[in-house]
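debug: dumping io for the single-chain case to check the tokenizer round-trip. Nothing else runs in this session.
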Amino acid sequence: MNGSQLSTCFKNPTPEKIGKTFAFCLIFLVSLAGNTVIGIIVYKAKTMRKPTNFLIVNMAISDLLYAIFVIPREIPMLYIDSWLIGGPLGQALCRLAIFLTHFSASVSIQSLVLIAVDRFGAVVFPLRSSPISSKLCPFFILTTWIIAMAVFSPYLFAVKLVEYPGRLECKMLWNEVFGETLSFQNYFVSFSVVFIFIPLVLIAILYIIIFLKFKSQKIPGEQSANSEAEQRRRREQNVLKMAIAIVLGFAICWLPPIIVCLLVFFS
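debug: decoded output
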């Protein structure tokens, strides 16, 4: 097939564009409203100001960055095969859009791991002070942002706005910037292992231990305490549902695209 035929094959038909536009708008509105409400609730309700909730707010803020900077870029690209803004501002927005895509995800994943660690300490070692106390929580939150910035800072150099006849394109020029010293394949594999596979396994292990801890706890008092037994059963079910939802949600959202990218690189 020649170049024009190949280009035509990859053009999205109108129904697909409309469907993707609707999906992007829905995700944008839900993310904007939901994450903003989370922050407002934790800020206004003093009883909600706990390390776990602060970590959830940290996730909400990182997700807001994704919604604000990334999704608005995707909608015009469905209809216009060119970057809309040129000059220094367009160059900065191009780099930010790609950088924040991965940066936001990294902050969210680290927050999920910290939440699991916090709950693990509270359930398995209830008499000890929490590993993520109220005083240390701001430090951990700041650390998630610093690590994400450090890990994905290469995108700020490798992504550039390239000018072609009649259009602008935001491209990844990894090899031109880093050459053979740091291949993108090795970088991507390292990121996948450290920020996807290891956190997924760690979160799964921690929540399994939490559930088993709840399961092994004995109810004080006589066997006739049916109400207490029922409360314990419901608590076990809630913990199990929470663990399954978090681990499955994490795996379903992240494993397919990561696996596809790895297949593209190596297969």
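debug: round-trip ok. The first strand starts at residue 159 and ends at 164.
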